[in-house]
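Minutes, structural biology subgroup

Action item carried over from last meeting: produce the structure token record for Metal-dependent hydrolase (Allosphingosinicella ginsenosidimutans). EB confirmed the sequence was re-checked against the source entry. Recorded below for completeness.
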Amino acid sequence: MPTRTPENLSITPRDRRFGRGAGTAHWWMNGDPVATAFYNALSATFPKGEAYFVESVRAFREGTPPRLAAEIKAFTTQEVMHSREHVQFNRRALDAGYDLSPLEQRVELRLAVTRARPPIVNLAATMCLEHFTAILAHQLLKDPRHLAGADPECAALWRWHSIEEIEHKGVAYDTWLHATRDWSRGKRWKVKAKVMLFVTRNFIVDRTGGVIELLRQDGITGPKAWARVLWHAWVRPGMLRKIFSAWAAFFLPGFHPWNHDDRALIARAEAAAEPAPAI
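Output recorded by EB:
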């Protein structure tokens, strides 16, 4: 199957470590319990989730073209390092007073159900979730307000992760195209659309539930908690509202993650992260 992944794309694992030997404030995201809970809830999914992504993609690496095989290898390396850093981030959240175990158990339950399905379904689920992480990453790098006032080490971790999610956003999709190369276009669209709707439902329900649980641990409950969560997600800063059109593009004929080349965001984020030259 032809790919729209840029020929000059370089998927470059960046071996970075964040927050070692340092504590993190309880509300590290600008003193905001809701924003802190949003990112903590997302991070709780990453160690097990990204291991699942790697497992699902690698199951189909045999027989892939050399370029895609190399991209799968680089994707694997990036995801392994993401898992490592989010394990550390989650430990700091634990030290700051949060219990992430209910959120982690929910991830384990979802993965157990999905792993019981055929490998091609797991690849489809990974492709859909990788689209989610890529469009979230795009929005996070595009709008500095999302991490404004955040703990510097935490913000650096999320920007680093976002850079690499954008960089490898086409790998699972290209692996899916290769694995389903003998399918009709209609069958391929029908399966990927059905899986995306299922994944989206679970993503919204589980991440919202995770945020609500962490707010409960902070003593913020009931209608007040729900109102604040919905406002944060859909109004201001409105991450879910802002990614909606990119999410919907997944269903269009001819979709490919690299139909929109957003490597300029990577360059801008890496330039901003470089230390200022000595005078």
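Discussion: The chain has one domain: 33-272.
Next step: EB to file the record with the rest of the batch.
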